Structures are given as C-alpha cells and as structure tokens.
Amino acid sequence: MTDITTSGDLAGRAALVTGASLGIGYAIAAELLRRGASVTITGRKPEQLATAVDTLVADAAGGDKGRVLGIAGNAGSAQSREEAVTRTVEAFGSLDILINNAGINPVYGPLMNADLDAVRKIFDVNVVAALGFVQLAHKAWMGEHGGSVVNIASVGGLRSTGVIAAYGASKAALIRLTEELAAELGPAIRVNAVAPAVVKTKFATALYEADEEGVAAAYPLKRLGEPEDVASVVGFLVSDAAGWVTGETVRIDGGALASGKLG
Q: Where along the sequence do coiled-coil regions lie (predicted)?
C-alpha cells in the first residue's frame, strides 16, 4: 500500500502555514512537505522559528533547504501578513495552499469576566487576520490560479464550554467565515476548516495538564489528540482527493461532541 504521507501528491505546490513553529502548525507543515509541497512557515519568535525550519528540512523535506522558508512575524500585523504572502510567491513561484493556523487565547473563563481588550485581540488574530491572509493570497495568486484554504478552528466553536468562551466565540466566527469564503471563492478556490478538540500541544496545556488521564477518559477514543491527527486531515483537505469538498468543517475530536461530554 502506498504511504500517502510520502506519495508526492502535492509536488509542485507551495503552501503557507501560519503559526507553525510548534504544535499543530508544525505538524501540518511536515505533512505537506512529506507530500511534496514547498512550505513557508510563520511564527512570532525568530529563534524558535529557525529551529523549526532546520528540523523540517532535516526530517520532512529530505534535506532540501530550498523547500522550506521561515518568516518571523505576528499574524495580527498587516505588514507581517503581506511579507509572508509576497515572499512565499517570490520563493516558490506560487501560493496554492493556505493554512490559517495562527491563533491566540490569552483569557480563560466566562465572558462576563473577560477583558474586552483581550477579546478584541482574540478576534483580530483568530478571525480578522485569517481573512486578511485569504485576501492577500487571493490577490497574489489564488484569484487567478485557484487553490485551497484550510482554517484551523476548534470544537469550542461548535459548542459552548464555559472554559474558553471568548476563544470559542472567535472560532465560531472562523467557521462561519469559512462557509462565506467557500461560497464566494468557488469553484477555483476551496475553503474548509477543521475543528480539533484537546490536542497535546503547548498551546492547550492548561486544558489537560492537571489531569490528562481524566480528561482523556471523557473521550470515546480514550486519548487526547496528537498534532499529527489534525495534520493528516488537513493534508487530505488540500489534496485533489478532496476536490468536491468545500465549506466543510471537519471535527477531529476523538468522539467528544458525539458523546455530549464537551463542556
């Protein structure tokens, strides 16, 4: 059987994965590289980003430094977004795949206790910046040549949790944004989203570190997600195998919502 992660089905395509120094973004970048794409990753911390680039080159790009580009910057900055898109097209000659993974969650708890400036920042990075990246990718390449966009949402955008209320509201907006963009940009550009539950990353540590076994026990599959669980689905969504899939949000949650135990 052919290993799809090394099948080369994305060869000749260029991808931009935001917020990809660690965790889910890094795993997605590695997945796309193994499938043959060239990949730009962004991150806020230059040293961490440089380490991620070196590791991706060695582990996923077969040592080919020309297939991995790292661009430091904040997704919430219009200048950083412009640089990432422009340099990707300059380096690889196209921008066929956009993964809006960058996201923040500086506040926990119910909305009645939420600092409004923090809520504005969450929506600016998690929603407005994602739209900004799509607009730039459309202008720079996809509008004329087509492409595929995947937004990294959350099960918190599908059902209230009471724990990550502002973040969940922003991800609900991102899911709606996905549907609006899919309707607006078809047929040449497909736009989908994935909605993970708790994945074992530094970003989500606060949600499981006190009792990982207890948190995992609530899931029908009895484990938390791994970044690779999300990456493999994203790899499918940007491939030709998903050529008739757009406007979709795929839950990757170990059965959490099916069991009714989220929140």
A: none
